[in-house]
Amino acid sequence: MKNKIILFQNQEIRRTWHDNQWVFSIIDVIAILTKSVNPQAYWRKLKERLLKSGNETVTNCHGLKMKAVDGKMRTTDVANIEQLLRLIQSIPSPKAEPFKLWLARVGKERIDEIENPVLAQERMKRLYEQKGYSKDWIDKRLRGIAIRQNLTEEWQERGIVHKKDYAILTAEISKATFGMTPSEYKEHKGMPKKSGKNLRDNMTDLELIFTMLGEKVTTEISKQEEPVGMPENKQVAKRGGKVAGNARIEAEQEIGQSIISDQSHSPESLLTS
User: Fold this and answer.
1) Closest CA relative to residue 26, chosen from 82, 76, 90
2) For residues 74 and 71, what is the distance between their CA atoms, to the nearest angstrom?
3) For position 239, what pLDDT does the model report?
4) Which H/E stretch holds residue 135?
5) Could you give the 3-state DSSP secondary structure of residue 31?
6) What's the pLDDT tens digit per position in 168-203?
7) In what helix (H) or strand (E) does residue 75 lie, and over which residues does it extend?
8) DSSP string covering 105-123, please?
9) Which residue positions in the chain have pLDDT lower than 70?
10) pLDDT at residue 272, rounded to an integer
11) Which residues touch 245 (CB under 8 Å, ≥6 apart)?
């Protein structure tokens, strides 16, 4: 499962689903609870102290790769809910009690979402609302996520299972739809290369719509033709993207302006612009 970001009092904590349970970045938790300017150093010292005292919780904490602030996947120590609750007891903080209650709630969240996927969508909707996105934009974004998931599942049916291959096929759709790969699109919008920000979270409504169209058409062509191997799947991706690209060009002619925006559409970017 992909790494996720979850919010505690509007502060981000990285987590991922590992060995049938949520595990959380210990450094992120320490940063929130202690306000330390160097949470990595704080954790190193705390870990040394706990190891010397024979604390088994630290011994059982291990490292997993999570996306860092520079956008790269880096190994960081993680802990499950039980381990975190024990660690928190060793960290003096006025936020300890509310954090414990929050931790118990988000731990149950994943189990509920497995049983009822609608809950996962509702949670994502709330997160976007907290970030300041409009209801209309959120509806399109969530629909786009569902379409993307369907496309990924279709690629898996066709034997495409590696992330790098997903990236290659996605780039083909994007080039045919917008004339740019996702990385080129980020650069066009002035998004820092190592920011780790999601391109689609910075798209306008119309950009999201044509992204959805390209991926939906690609999915339908693939279901009809059942391509085999990367070369055939690349051709299908190009064709699906071309349908969206042609529709985009026609729409631009009708409305008299480009749909491709060089501005980031995220609320935080709009506030600082």
Assistant:
1) 76
2) 9
3) 98
4) helix 135-157
5) helix
6) 999 999 999 999 999 999 999 998 766 567 899 999
7) strand 73-80
8) HHHHHHHHHHH-HHHHHHH
9) 1-7, 9, 20, 104, 106-120, 193-196, 268-273
10) 45
11) 176, 177, 178, 179, 210, 214
The pair of structure tokens assigned to 164 is 């790098």
CA distance 12 to 29: 9
Contact between residue 195 and residue 71 where contact means Cβ atoms under 8 Å apart: yes
Residue 25: strand pairing partners: 78
Q: Please name the residue that has the structure tokens 């690629």.
A: 155
Which residue, among 142, 151, 150, has the nearest Cα to 121 in the 3D structure? 142
> Residue with structure tokens 């399109």?
140
Concatenate the DSSP letters of all residues of 214-243 into one string: HHHHHHHHHHHH---HHHHHHHHHHHHHHH
Residues in CB range of 237: below 8 A, 6 or more apart: 169, 170, 172, 173, 176, 218
- The pLDDT score that the predictor gives to residue 122 is 77
